[in-house]
Amino acid sequence: MKKLAIASALLSALAMSGTANAYQAEVGGSYTYTDWDDFDGTHNFGVDGTYYFNPVQTRNAPLNEAAFLDRASNVKAEVNYGNNNDVKNTQYGAGIEYFVPNSDFYLSGNVGRSEHEVDNTPIDTKVTTYGAEVGYLPAPGLLLAVGVKGYDAKDGDDGADPTIRAKYVTQVGQHDVNVEAYGAFGDLDEYSVRGDYYLDKTLSVGADYYNNDLTDRDEFGISAKKFLNQQVSLEGRVGFGDNYNTFGLRGAYRF
Predict the structure, then answer these.
(1) Which tens digits make up the pLDDT trace of 105-138?
(2) For FRET with 59, which of 18, 38, 135, 241 sits at 20 to 30 Å CA-CA?
(3) How many CB atoms neighbour CB 26 within 10 A?
(4) Residue 8: predicted pLDDT
(5) What residues contact residue 80 under an 8 Å CB cut-off, 6+ apart?
(6) Per-residue pLDDT at 1 exceeds 70
(7) Exposed / middle / buried, residue 11 (Cβ in 10 Å: 0-12, 13-18, 19+)
(8) pLDDT digit string (tens) for 54-109?
């Protein structure tokens, strides 16, 4: 009986340790300062949240990639706001990612809104964006997706273009690597690439590039992210544009 009790206790401890690092939601707050060449610096603040349909198992994955590698379906939302010298900028959006159970298929959708307003002037720009994707995971850690991205501006300008995206998380030697690429082609020419190198499961450094002809944005960035423990993370990014630099910070908590 004693041996049976000890064995049961060990199995219970192992079961608890296997799920101790699981989480089902993440909330974050961010701050971005933009240093313009021709204007005063601007400040923007944001909040974001993600809810996973099932607890995410971190296992032995990089903590930042645990949800993707666990194929964790989720819903998310975010809001960003800035009010600088009577110029108001607001962006908010929501999205869903769904990994089809017992298959290698993936679906996603998102909708967003961007508003730019200058007090005491007729400037009042509003743009609604939306997107949808269908994807396939042909190998562990690899996602290939195609879709459509559209926009509808208040002034009547609108359009919808095809998109393509890839994400791959793998190991190079003893370290993990994440590589991402995205492109939209047509009326809206937009593309981005990103790479992250994980020094360990909690710490990464990365570089990214983004270009959008609709907003005339062309930016290169470098970043770093550190998980202080299984729940708390801090990250920073510096971006370099044609006539500006950005400095961003984000803190997040998982539970």
Answers:
(1) 999 999 999 998 887 776 778 989 999 999 999 9
(2) 135
(3) 20
(4) 45
(5) 30, 32, 44, 45, 46, 89, 90, 91, 92
(6) no
(7) exposed
(8) 999 988 999 999 999 999 999 999 999 999 988 899 999 999 999 999 999 999 99
The 3 state secondary structure assigned to 18-37 is HHCCCEEEEEEEEEEEEEEC
Q: Report the sign of the C-alpha dihedral through residues 47, 216, 206, 42, in that order.
A: negative
* Environment class of 183 (CB within 10 Å of its CB; exposed 0-12, middle 13-18, buried 19+): middle
